[in-house]
């Protein structure tokens, strides 16, 4: 309905305007009151750092002057030439692609392991008794704790960071799937057995559809664990190809707090975007289909 | 549901900004612009240094208790770091007042804070860095290092900067992915496991790599420098601390100077003390003959070798560690050092 759409749009615009107001006041506070920029950055520093990571030299943080924000306050040199190729090969784009690649591979691995084990834990109480409490405990272990072990056993390699990612996320997925399956209405299982579903048919035609909401939920929470584990691992793991976590670490080593905050913002944005566009979509589709939404 | 009006949003924004500025301003003002106020009695001094032979004056000063005795009645705390960037971070955060650190991180700190947060007040050591290689990595001369996996103590520290510079200029490498920052202590295990081919290490870590990881010294870094000398350790502080507690800094500097003199007179005499102190800090006791050999590679001096700072500033810019060229004006402040070298004539003469 037209009115509903307009009030939804109105709400989104108001929220956006509120956040822009917060950023504006933060920047104004820095310009007027001022504090040490290398301890805590202002929005203009973070914006400069982000654009610099994209190979675009800007000077938003300079005091307002004739050439703002493309030239320096001192007026030395005009805006630097911008080439699309330079932006595509910039540190930030390469880092996003590297982290994304690791995430896709690692999440796929983690998903297979986690879902398989979750299913087994649900089906066989012996497996649950053996792994359940251990997984529950291991789930709480921060992913960075796995890094020293990964370095010493797998070396400084992509395999090591994948190990950290998988260890940080598959326990949570297994537990989440097991619990999700336990809460599916037992009527589906009973009906399936009555209709003669056995073995693989049982899982494919009865449990999988019945457990779809649980599965979708598992995937969503598994993704956020995987993303967090990857970022945490990349902070400590120094690899040839730099991911977002390594960009943050680099910013820290060079005392560039603006770069640190810029990378943090990027991590949040990517996490939110993927969650919203992929997993939340999957979950809401499943829930609507099942009449749970 | 009540949605925020823009006015309410601005109000929240104002509160947020107040919180943020109070966090940012609560740290003691490092610019020393509050020098007008009377210096208050300091309760605690924090000295930062590394568990390296190249920080011998700091290690011995702390172990012998002379720093503590000098700053009394103020309390003294020593903080040990793996390498420069961590120490600089602590300096910024106000957790360290006086630090022993290498030139690379100093230049970076000076550039990032536009000269407001750091001053070099003296030197402590020069040279003392070696390139150690794994025997079966096929590295016989410097040129063989091209493309090999080389470890440095931390990203952005002095050895990291040197390694990257020499690989780029002398060996023509454009892609420096083979330089890997790994903490000193971890380099040992990784070289033993053949995970790294070489290490650009300060003493005594270079000697430890030889002793414990089966490495071999390829060359001393000083041979790559024009005058066969480069500043490695400098004593730094913040402008605010210098302004407010000049007397305490003077006392600490005096102890460091006395150790420089003693080490230059007869350094082998202090090797047992150094062995014991480093063993306590790193958990591993090194044989004294090896430490004796390693200490001969180091030159102890109180001069902050300014040429090193200028050279490394240029390197930092060329390696894109710094966005723009940095002007080192105002970084070095040796007034205190000169005062200690030739004390002013006593009043009344």
Layout of SSEs?
The complex is a heterodimer of chains A (293) and B (349).
Chain A: H1 2-32, H2 43-53, H3 84-88, H4 91-123, H5 125-139, H6 147-154, H7 158-182, H8 186-194, H9 199-210, H10 212-236, H11 244-253, H12 257-289
Chain B: H1 6-26, E1 44-50, H2 56-63, H3 66-71, E2 75-81, H4 84-92, E3 98-101, H5 103-112, E4 119-127, E5 129-133, E6 150-152, H6 158-169, E7 179-181, H7 184-192, E8 198-202, H8 205-213, E9 216-220, E10 231-237, H9 239-244, H10 246-265, H11 271-282, H12 288-295, E11 298-300, H13 306-318, H14 335-341
Parallel strand pairs in B: 1-2, 1-3, 6-7, 6-8
Antiparallel strand pairs in B: 3-10, 4-10, 4-11, 5-8, 5-9
Low-confidence stretches of chain B: 28-40
Query: How would the global form of chain B be characterised?
Result: globular
Q: If you average the pLDDT of chain B, what whole number results?
A: 87
Roughly what fraction of the amino acids of chain A lie in strands?
under 5%
Give me the secondary-structure category of chain B: alpha/beta
CATH class of the largest domain in chain A: Mainly Alpha
What's the count of strands of chain B?
11
What's the gyration radius of chain A in Å?
24 Å
Major interchain interface with per-chain residue totals = A-B, 38 and 45 residues
Cα(first) to Cα(last) distance of chain A is 19 Å
CATH architecture of the largest domain in chain A: Orthogonal Bundle
Oligomer: heterodimer
Query: Would you give the CATH topology of the largest domain in chain A?
Result: MetI-like fold
> Approximately how much helix is present in the residues of chain B?
40-55%
- The number of domains of chain B is 2
CATH architecture of the largest domain in chain B: 3-Layer(aba) Sandwich
């Amino acid at each position: 309905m037209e009115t509903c759409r307009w009030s939804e749009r109105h709400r989104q615009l108001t929220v956006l305007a509120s956040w822009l107001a917060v950023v504006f006041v933060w920047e104004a506070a820095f310009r007027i009151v001022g504090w040490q920029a290398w301890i805590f950055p202002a929005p203009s520093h973070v914006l400069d750092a982000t654009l610099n990571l994209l190979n675009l030299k800007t000077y938003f943080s300079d005091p307002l002057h004739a050439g703002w924000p493309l030239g320096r306050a001192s007026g030395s040199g005009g805006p630097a030439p911008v080439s699309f190729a330079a932006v595509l090969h910039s540190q930030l784009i390469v880092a996003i692609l590297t982290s994304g690649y690791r995430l896709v591979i690692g999440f796929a691995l983690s998903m297979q392991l986690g879902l398989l084990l979750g299913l087994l834990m649900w089906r066989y109480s012996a497996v649950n008794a053996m792994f359940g409490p251990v997984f529950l405990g291991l789930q709480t272990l921060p992913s960075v704790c796995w890094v020293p072990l990964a370095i010493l056993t797998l070396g400084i390699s992509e395999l090591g960071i994948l190990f950290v990612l998988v260890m940080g996320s598959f326990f949570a997925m297994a537990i989440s799937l097991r619990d999700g399956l336990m809460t599916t209405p037992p009527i589906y299982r009973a009906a399936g057995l009555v209709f003669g579903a056995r073995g693989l048919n049982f899982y494919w035609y009865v449990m999988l559809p019945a457990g779809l909401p649980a599965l979708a939920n598992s995937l969503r929470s598994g993704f956020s664990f995987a993303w967090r584990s990857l970022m945490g691992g990349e902070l400590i793991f120094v690899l040839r190809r730099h991911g977002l976590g390594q960009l943050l670490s680099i910013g820290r080593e060079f005392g560039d707090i603006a770069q640190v905050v810029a990378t943090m913002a990027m991590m949040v944005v990517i996490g939110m975007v993927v969650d919203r566009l992929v997993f939340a979509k999957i979950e809401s589709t499943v829930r609507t289909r099942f009449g749970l939404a | 549901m009540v949605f925020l009006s823009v006015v309410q949003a601005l109000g929240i924004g104002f509160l947020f900004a107040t919180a943020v500025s109070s966090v940012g301003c609560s740290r003691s003002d490092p610019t020393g612009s509050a020098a007008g106020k009377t210096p208050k009695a300091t309760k605690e001094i924090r000295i930062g240094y590394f568990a390296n032979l190249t920080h011998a004056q700091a290690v011995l000063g702390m172990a012998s208790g002379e720093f503590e005795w000098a700053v009394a009645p103020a309390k003294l705390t020593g903080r040990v770091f793996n390498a420069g960037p961590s120490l600089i971070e602590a300096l910024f955060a106000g957790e360290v007042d006086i630090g022993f650190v290498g030139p690379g991180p100093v230049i970076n700190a000076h550039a990032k804070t536009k000269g407001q947060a750091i001053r070099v007040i003296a030197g402590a050591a020069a040279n003392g860095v070696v390139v150690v290689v794994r025997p079966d990595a096929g590295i016989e001369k410097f040129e063989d290092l091209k493309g090999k996996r080389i470890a440095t103590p931390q990203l952005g520290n002095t050895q990291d900067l040197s390694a990257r510079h020499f690989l780029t200029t002398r060996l023509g490498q454009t892609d420096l992915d083979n330089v890997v920052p790994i903490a000193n202590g971890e380099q040992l295990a990784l070289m033993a496991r053949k995970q790294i081919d070489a290490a650009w290490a300060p003493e005594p870590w270079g000697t430890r790599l030889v002793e414990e990881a089966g490495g071999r010294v390829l060359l001393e870094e000083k041979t790559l420098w024009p005058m066969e000398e480069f500043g490695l350790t400098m004593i730094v502080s913040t402008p605010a601390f210098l302004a407010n507690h000049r007397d305490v800094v003077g006392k600490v500097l005096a102890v460091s100077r006395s150790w420089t003199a003693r080490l230059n007179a007869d350094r082998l005499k202090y090797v047992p003390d150094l062995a014991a102190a480093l063993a306590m800090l790193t958990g591993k006791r090194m044989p004294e003959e090896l430490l004796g050999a390693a200490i001969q590679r180091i030159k102890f001096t109180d001069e902050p070798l300014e040429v090193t700072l200028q050279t490394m500033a240029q390197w930092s810019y060329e390696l894109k560690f710094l966005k723009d060229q940095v002007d080192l004006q105002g970084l070095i402040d040796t007034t205190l050092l000169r005062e200690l070298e030739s004390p002013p004539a006593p009043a009344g003469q």
